């Protein structure tokens, strides 16, 4: 079957069990969905269950459906990374074979001093940290001194946190543009600079949705570029335009949270276009996975599940809805970082008489290859289309 519109939802970090190479990432035993299902009292996902989520892997309280409504499977990541950028780029056909640079011991002193000179402020932190813990630790000092908080993680990120009343947003964004310029150099390369504004008082800080990401451009054209080149629509909702650095995007819509992401996707279902509408739901990852909060994560999943009927009802003939993820972030795993996992794959359209098991896809790029195949645009260098299985 061929589709005129494809709606793609990435549930950020909703992994479905360790990949064979998880030990290389110190992620043996990670299982984001599985562990949440075990830990959270009253956990249920009735609508995702009907689609076939429980047919992909055994999940407590999410049994396999006898007649799943969607084609189902899971996908393996072949790129050497477990961050958002790597996962999304692979979905759209890129194999990230050289891992992005990370800074487990903080950024080099030479980079920090050049950065301090350029921004006219000093740096606090400069280490691996959870973004909320570091506010507890250094937020007050930042407020007193006006020095910026710089931190990183297991990902290739240079994050700058500042209180909105201490450093106005425009200045924080300008500071991040300077960081972006410096970290485009090979010797200091990072994938993303992230502005992390926050508000509140010591002991009670909260981060705002004025977060802004400054990503490097994908190293080759992705399937989204091929769609755009063919004159098709490629709508980016939420973080998508940041993740692909605005490449291959014909329209970009910002969101404030997961439910807004679902609303915006529903909004695009009412538009008439041919091509892709692609949303990333980041709260799973940012608000619950990194915070190691299985309860909150489980509730966010149930909240998303409750929106599935609306999504299915808004689909028209010739539409395909795909639900997947970009990596894991098991909230009961050690540390506060992502986990190396399979991602679920659910593909729904009207008129499925008998759902197919799409199996274990060898790379996330099978999805990009399928999208390219569907719209008859240039196929990515990696990935096998499963269009004929839909
Ligand atoms: O702990 P917080 O600030 O949420 O940061 C997390 O978010 C970053 C970007 O998604 C990740 O690299 C991780 O560091
Ligand atoms: Mn992610
Ligand atoms: Mn993350």
From TrEMBL:
Provide the catalytic activity annotation: alpha-D-ribose 1-phosphate = D-ribose 5-phosphate; 2-deoxy-alpha-D-ribose 1-phosphate = 2-deoxy-D-ribose 5-phosphate
Q: Where does Mn(2+) 1 bind?
A: 12, 326-327
- Annotated CDD domains: PPM (cd16009)
| Pathway noted in the entry | Carbohydrate degradation; 2-deoxy-D-ribose 1-phosphate degradation; D-glyceraldehyde 3-phosphate and acetaldehyde from 2-deoxy-alpha-D-ribose 1-phosphate: step 1/2
Instruction: Give the similarity note.
Output: Belongs to the phosphopentomutase family.
What the protein does comes down to: Isomerase that catalyzes the conversion of deoxy-ribose 1-phosphate (dRib-1-P) and ribose 1-phosphate (Rib-1-P) to deoxy-ribose 5-phosphate (dRib-5-P) and ribose 5-phosphate (Rib-5-P), respectively.
Q: What is this protein called?
A: Phosphopentomutase
């Amino acid at each position: 079957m061929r589709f005129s519109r494809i709606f793609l939802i990435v549930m950020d970090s909703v992994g479905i069990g360790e990949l064979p190479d998880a030990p290389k990432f110190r992620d043996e035993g990670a299982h984001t969905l599985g562990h949440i299902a075990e830990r959270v009292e009253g956990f249920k996902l009735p609508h995702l269950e009907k689609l076939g989520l429980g047919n992909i892997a055994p999940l407590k309280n999410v049994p396999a459906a006898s007649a799943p409504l969607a084609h189902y499977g899971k996908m393996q990541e072949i790129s050497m990374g477990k961050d958002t950028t790597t996962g999304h780029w692979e979905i759209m056909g890129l194999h990230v074979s050289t891992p992005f640079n990370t800074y487990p011991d903080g950024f080099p002193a030479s980079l920090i001093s050049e950065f301090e000179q350029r921004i006219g402020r000093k740096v606090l932190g400069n280490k691996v940290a959870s973004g909320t813990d570091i506010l507890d630790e250094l937020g007050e000092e930042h407020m007193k001194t006006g020095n910026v908080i710089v931190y990183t993680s297991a990902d290739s990120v240079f994050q700058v946190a500042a209180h909105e009343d201490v450093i106005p947003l425009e200045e924080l964004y300008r500071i991040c543009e300077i960081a972006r310029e410096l970290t485009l150099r090979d010797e200091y390369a990072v994938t993303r600079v992230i502005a992390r504004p926050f508000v509140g008082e010591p002991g009670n800080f909260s981060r705002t949705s004025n977060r802004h990401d400054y990503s490097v451009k994908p190293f080759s054209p992705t399937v989204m570029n091929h769609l755009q080149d063919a004159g098709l629509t490629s709508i980016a909702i939420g973080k998508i335009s940041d993740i692909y650095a605005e490449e291959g995007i014909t329209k970009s819509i910002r969101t404030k949270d997961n439910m807004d992401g679902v609303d915006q996707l529903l909004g695009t279902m009412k538009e008439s276009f041919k091509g892709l509408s692609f949303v990333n739901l980041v709260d799973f990852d940012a608000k619950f996975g990194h915070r190691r909060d299985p309860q909150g994560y489980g509730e966010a999943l149930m909240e998303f599940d409750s929106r599935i009927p609306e999504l299915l009802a808004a689909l028209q003939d010739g539409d395909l809805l795909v639900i997947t993820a970009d990596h894991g972030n098991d909230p009961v795993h050690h540390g506060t970082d992502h986990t190396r996992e399979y991602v679920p794959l659910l593909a729904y359209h009207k008129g499925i008489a008998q759902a197919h098991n799409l199996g274990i896809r060898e790379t996330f790029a099978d999805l990009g290859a399928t999208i390219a195949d569907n719209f008859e645009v240039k196929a990515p260098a990696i990935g096998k289309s499963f269009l004929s299985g839909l």
